Predict the 3D structure of the following.
Amino acid sequence: MPDFAPPRAAARPRPPLGRARTLSAAMAFAVACTPEPATAPTARPPAPSTQAAATERRPPSPPEVRPVYPTGPVTPDATAAALCRALHETPARRRAECCGRPAPPAGAHGAACTRLLSLAVADGAIRLDAGATAACIATLEAAGGPSTCETQGRFAPGPAPDGPCADVVVGLRRAGAECRSDLECEGSMQCRGAGPTTPGTCAGPNQVGMGCGEAVDVLVAQTGLPGSEARHPECDGLCVQRRCTFLTPAGGACRANAACGPGRACVEGLCADAPTGLGAGEPCPGLGCAAVLRCVEGRCRAPAPTGAVCTHDGECAGACLKPAANARQGKCGPFCPP
């Protein structure tokens, strides 16, 4: 049987090689030349204005600092004004008299004293005891003068801490009330947390371990009234290196009288009851000498009069006046500022 082979399909004619290359090149050219579809331009956010940018970069303003006693106008309280004149102007006038100079004009301390006391009175934070104020003024006016120029030291002696001037201000703020000074608080309370620009709160003394001695009492500083620390104690004990600590008991080791507390002294390294009425020449622990005597280098002595040889102010009734700042010795006499 003869072999049978199916008919082969007719071959598809190929285009000439030159045509294929021409077609490919034409297609490539067409693709390359076809313009891309148009797209909308991307919108950019508007640039911030110079003022707005500066506002964004500016740091927040710090809180405004204001003094605890306002600085606006105030009507002077008559009693406060008389008291402040006696506290500040009288000593300056006495010194001028002793030094043969005209009386100085009223100073800034007296004006600040009058202003702050007047504000505290007007706010109902304090009242001025009439009897104590009159006694304080009389005491200050009687002290000093030409008859006692010999006792004129470098600093005018302040009112006695146990005298009538210590009873002038009566605090009216109760426990928990806002205050600006220890003098504004009732009884023996302190104004805890108060400072020149920060009000505090009337409260009892800080307990052992709490902070202390970190602020200035503006009213006490400007008036110069004595006895505030004793009447309004900051610590229930002693303030040492800005921390309240225990007082040293009787018989305990000590280095200073303050460590032993009121009514006691550091005697020969131990806390004991403070001596009183010690005579001339008797050993003293820094206090306890009889009237007109003072404890100088561990002994009670009478202050040296004008003309006596001295080495420091503590020996003199007035001051130890030296010919030069580095001089070892000088002579006692009244001090007149240059």
